[in-house]
What does this fold into?
Amino acid sequence: MLEGELSDPRIAPCYVTEVVLAPGGKSCRVFIAVNGGEEDEQSTLEGLMAARAFIRTEIRYRMGVRHVPEMTFAIDRSEKMGARMDELLGRMKKRKDKLEKKVSEKEKAASATAPSAKAETK
It folds into this structure.
């Protein structure tokens, strides 16, 4: 429904990642992920909020239920946060590998010079 039936030009390509239903079942929060930048996210959110009555009506009709909860839409940034976390963890691993390489090179250099010093003292 989000990609083909809503003709609002503000709505960028997006998909639903999670729906959290309130304990009483009277309201829900729909998390969406938008393919685009922050400006696209904001305009998509505005477009979906403007179309939520239509969306509720369509859900009621398609599911054949009497009550559909009030919907609020929110941007799901978990994928972007996950990608950022992966990037940071990758950087940490590179730094660790680089540090370990330096330490091992220093140890090799120290062990290479140590036997010659021992040989001179004998």
In short: The mean pLDDT is 82. The CA atoms of residues 20 and 80 lie 20 Å apart. Helices lie at 38-50, 52-63, 78-121.
